[in-house]
Amino acid sequence: MKSLLTTATLWITFVAGLSAAAASGTVLDGTAKSVATYGGIALSLVAGSRIARKEPVKSFLSRRPVLWFLFLFNGTVAAFCAVAVDGTQGAMAAVGMGLVALGAGFGLLPKRRGKPQTGRA
């Protein structure tokens, strides 16, 4: 029961953070808008990373077809943002999407199974 409550709380926190980041511009102005947006982004990032570490999401995100999709889709969006969106907003979007693409790309690399070291000098 505790796990179900924790999971539900994480998902509610994640959705609340996304909502605050996306909808703060329609409700607030000025500094309050920026604080709500960045606070919502931070909240959703923390909750989302905690959700991604739990099963069944963890096993889903580590499957090869999902990693290929994330790599190709986010790489394409990063390239598009770099070309189509002007200024700092385009650069930051390209960097963020590029980091996700790189993370998925590293997940596609074969895992190296290290041999035990011998005691030779």
UniProtKB/TrEMBL annotation:
Q: Record's superkingdom?
A: Bacteria
Question: Which residues constitute the signal peptide according to the record?
Answer: 1-21
Q: Does the keyword Transmembrane apply?
A: yes
Name listed for the protein in its UniProt record: Integral membrane protein
Keyword annotations for this protein, in alphabetical order, are: Membrane, Signal, Transmembrane, Transmembrane helix
Looking at the UniProt entry, the stretches that span the membrane are 35-53, 65-85, 91-110
